[in-house]
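Bench log, entry 3. Co-assembly request; chain sequences pasted below exactly as received.
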Amino acid sequence: MRVGVITFPGTLDDVDAARAVRYAGGEAVSLWHADHDLKGVDAVIVPGGFSYGDYLRCGAIARFAPVMQEVVEAANKGMPVLGICNGFQILCEAHLLPGALVRNSKLHFVCRDQWLRVENNETAWTTRYDRGAEILVPLKSGEGGYQADQRTLDELEGEGRVVYRYVGEDPNGSRNGIAGITSANGRVVGLMPHPEHAIDALTGPTDDGLGMFLSLVDSVVKA
Amino acid sequence: MARVVVDVMPKPEILDPQGQAVANALPRLGFDGITTVRQGKHFELEVADDVDDATLAKIAETFLANPVIEDWVVRRVEA
Amino acid sequence: MARVVVDVMPKPEILDPQGQAVANALPRLGFDGITTVRQGKHFELEVADDVDDATLAKIAETFLANPVIEDWVVRRVEA
Amino acid sequence: MTVNTGNTVDTVENAEKTPDQEQPYKELGLKDDEYARIKEILGRRPTDAELAVYSVMWSEHCSYKSSKVHLKYFSDTTTDEMRAKMLAGIGENAGVVDIGDGWAVTFKAESHNHPSYVEPYQGAATGVGGIVRDILAMGARPLAVMDPLRFGPADAPDTRRVLPGIVAGVGGYGNCLGLPNIGGEVVFDATYAGNPLVNALCVGAMRVEDLHLAHASGTGNKIILFGARTGLDGIGGVSVLASETFDDTAGKRKKLPSVQVGDPFTEKVLIECCLELFAERIVVGIQDLGGAGLACATSELASAGDGGMRVHLERVPLRATGMTPAEILSSESQERMCAVVRPEDLDAFMAVCAKWDVIATEIGEVTEGDRLVITWHDEVVLDVPPRTVAHEGPVYHRPIERPADQDALQADAPDRLARPSGDELLELVKTMAASPNLASKRWVTQQYDRYVRGGTVLAQPSDSGMIRIDESTRRGVALSTDCNGRYTRLDPYAGAQLALAEAYRNVATSGATPVAVTNCLNFGSPEDPAVMWQFEQAVKGLADGCAELGIPVTGGNVSFYNQTGATAILPTPVVGVLGVIDDVRRRIPTGIGAEAGETLLLLGE
Ligand SMILES: Nc1ncnc2c1ncn2[C@@H]1O[C@H](COP(=O)(O)OP(=O)(O)O)[C@@H](O)[C@H]1O
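Structure output for the full assembly:
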């Protein structure tokens, strides 16, 4: 079970994503933004950070990196892809997921432990959770407000493609409280909060996030 | 060399927290009569003379703006 | 009601990391011939007719722009 | 006053021919006797470039001219036993301690007070950027930051301007670098109203054998400038040297900005690039560019080495047109580093920089002899003994006098206050709980990423921050910064010791063993004898306290001239204590009541 973790200039959470993969029993393989090569991995994580400084728009420059062309192609063939925070923004910019992420409604960067409700436990990344379960993971972002036009929102809700919703006080002004969504085939998932920072109660608020990486290992082993 | 300006604005139906924050702050600072504020980005580019309008349009649409949430205007200005 | 536009730009001698990042990315995306990019902010305000130019200038200077590092231009446009 | 005419550059040759030319040394902050000493050192008048370099390097900020005689007390009171674990101490970019298992930890605090008042966001951001480069220059991976802050009253109008910008700047830069913020302070007091304090601390770690020191040795080795381009940032002072008739293409040059804008993305890439260079072992010496830019980096590298140095200044990649040698040397453009590299490693060095898209330029070489020579298109514009720039600046014994009001202040003890009655006591508790200094700091701390890179074991609301250094052994360090300026005003000697004791306790109660101390000494004007008395007392108190506890001061920073008009800030010697814990799982979180039935014990008197 080999999981690629991409590093762009300005990526920060690649070490955390790789650690989470290892904790779940997988092998983390680093992928470099400038390479046209996924090194034969079974799945890809686009980690958090500030790729290219988040200048212009979060994810707008990273989307054009050579490695992203490969990711888009692989995703279209069904490879599981997870975008966390900046990775979610990049997946939206690359049109692997619909919508966009905008500046938090209160305009400040927010770092806090955030409760999420699992709305869809059938994606490649969420089968270890019960539907409706609530998990506590860090949220840390300045541009985490999920926005999409009404038709897209209706489609996401109608098809059950909202994966996570914020519980409690709204942290960033996301439409419908959306924290994470999935592609039509349930293979590509993007979310703003950070499951990779919640894999061990020593360094995170909980180990609730580990379920995402265990789910992936399950799904690839099954396939 | 030509100078090109691209203005990128959040679409009217998209929430614009920054513009709203400015609009809310103005009365507190004693400035009345400003009913709406929207905040976007302003780019100034120096471009070679052989860069045509179609290319500029493409740069704006595929890169400078995100059409999902933003509108944009490209114009050439006197240098 | 009048529409007013305020463009705020980093001063020429001040580092503009955002514009620089855009300029560096363009050739990688296959767009050549763009030598310089500077990125600033673009505000669109709806203002009551009795708001005069002096007030607008003050709003721009004290609030929309940071005169320590930015220049700005205020202009009224057709609605 | 004009030195240049037209576009000619003031060369050494020209200086020799025009010994009597008037120079604006006063505008550059040099005193008559200091200017005379420069002439004596050089045996002629300095060139524009030399004048610029001496004036920035002999400034209070770079030369420690008022504090040097006092800071010596730290070394005097450090015993060999205290020094045992110290791999680098005062005088290096940052102190380094051996924490066991082959790990070395480096940490340091620095102030960016004035720039943060002028432009809060950028001032605070570049403050973080600067201290992070200091840590990087030791060969370490920066691991976490902290930010002791001081503001005027919470409800003062200027605090509303300054505080949000500073907090956003600390967060904006640190978050983008991927450095968890593991602690800090937010304190309000009227004396900081026109003079907020932004102190930033960074901690990093490396394997002991990877320690890098800033020196340029080995004749023929290359000097590489890498990172951002050099622009007109922060050279406001030196602009008096620019010719009035200077003609830019856009006409006369405007007043130059003294504000620097940070680019955290460039710094993040620079960090990763440097760490890869260190890993390949192709860096002989390295120095960050901070205040005083290239002037500082070249003179410090050269004076710490065993040869001379030659720099071809026209090779420096610029961001602005028409910059003069003096301006290039004193530019404070951020996100730059200077390395010394063996000629045979040059290609490998350039390849790593290319991988990270970092601009790298060979600007000079280590030479025989002992002069720092800088040329501009082959004309010599600077030719000096580097030690005279970097280390042999002026030293002042400033007058010291115990303030006249000190006795009255101390006599005004709390036993003269009325004791609150039962009801008043409740009100008092409520008032205190609601006061900005005691209220929750969440508004600040939630703008800082404390999770990034997954090593944070303790951060807010804990009394000290703790990070895991080694994932396999779980060895880690704890850090706390503290200072109560009001206590220090009442008694600077005891106040500094209380700051030390508090930071020490915070580290100890987290489960770590305190091993080293850094400081950031924020005071008013050194020209005020009362301030100098506070300073001297605080240094003595801190040093004696450290000797008592048996842990060394490994570095620090002095920030003088923190005052509004004639009113100095409260003396604020911020003390940072570093502790070691061999297994971070044994950390002790702050707070009580995790489980019912816990027993509360009070230790001490
Ligand atoms: N500027 C700051 N940056 C980061 N952390 C901070 C800052 N100010 C306060 N904190 C953190 O918030 C927590 C509470 O701070 P404070 O209320 O000052 O507590 P204490 O008085 O016990 O030091 C501590 O963990 C402290 O490190």
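The CA atoms of residues 20 and 35 of chain B lie 10 Å apart. The mean pLDDT of chain B is 92.
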